[in-house]
Amino acid sequence: MMVEANPVKFYLAKFFFLGFSFVQWLVATTILMRFGFDSKNFFTALVFITLGLIFFLIFLLISDKIKRVAVGKNKIVVIEGDKNMRFDWPEVKSLKLIPYFNVYKLKIRGKRNPIYFFPSKNVDPAFGLLAKDTSRMGEIVQKKKKDFGIK
Predict the structure, then answer these.
(1) Measuring CA to CA, which residue among 64, 69, 96, 106 is closest to residue 84?
(2) Residues of 70-89 as b/e, b for ≥16 C-beta within 10 angstroms?
(3) What is the mean pLDDT of residues 54-76?
(4) How far apart are CA 96 and CA 30, in angstroms?
(5) How many CA atoms lie within 13 Å of 97's alpha carbon, on the beta-carbon side?
(6) Torsion-angle region of residue 28: left (phi > 0), alpha (psi -120 to 50) or beta?
(7) What is the pLDDT of residue 27?
(8) Quick check: pTM over 0.85?
(9) Is the predicted pLDDT of residue 81 greater than 60, yes or no?
């Protein structure tokens, strides 16, 4: 049985910065169209255009790293559209939960870039910086980390 995170959470995290950048550009366009093209309005619109560009660059940086992942007892499956990449647990180099972002960081042997994915449910915070995934996905991850000596 494979456990996968909520797709709504995945798509929201992946495309949040893109949507927010479009909102910034829409505000800038509205300011220029509605209030005229004087220096004060132009500067205000330029601030929103710049914010939109910054959020768009953040989207470009993180969108390739966030993936949909299904975790099972025998393998990890990275879901990318029609194509699925399957990895056995011994191929996992490290798997860590990043507490404040509520996201897992997965490193695969032989792959350069890490993969970030969400747990199946919200992670329970414990004692400030520590966090523990108490969902079914968290149980599988903890058991396999112990079985294969994964960091």
Answers:
(1) 69
(2) bbbeeebbbbeeeeeeebeb
(3) 92
(4) 43
(5) 25
(6) alpha
(7) 96
(8) no
(9) yes
